[in-house]
Amino acid sequence: MNMYPKDMRNQVVEKDHHLKLNNRKLLEITGVKEVDSFDNEEFLLQTVMGYLVIRGHNLQLKNLDVTEGIVSIKGKIYELSYIDEDDQGKAKGFFSKLFR
């Protein structure tokens, strides 16, 4: 017995993805699927919009809610960047150009 209406069974529901940065000290992110890796200088998160890299100093995981997909990170935030799947195979930077 299926409790969902027929038109709702085949729909993929993606969560919204929001970033809220307060004074470069507290970052709140929604739409997080998975925390792949983290340390005090870098976090790698899989979000509904792709992979997100957060770089900074003294980064700490303040809050993690896997059911809602919410992550809070505190510390000094230096950089937020998305890794597109198209760019994963391409090397970037000075050394990659030098050693082609």
Automatic annotation (TrEMBL):
Classification via Gene3D superfamilies: 2.60.40.2000
Top-level taxon of the source organism: Bacteria
GO biological process: sporulation resulting in formation of a cellular spore
Matching InterPro entries: Spore_YabP (IPR012504), Spore_YabP/YqfC (IPR022476), YabP_sf (IPR038705)
Protein name: Sporulation protein YabP
Species classification: Bacteria, Bacillati, Bacillota, Bacilli, Bacillales
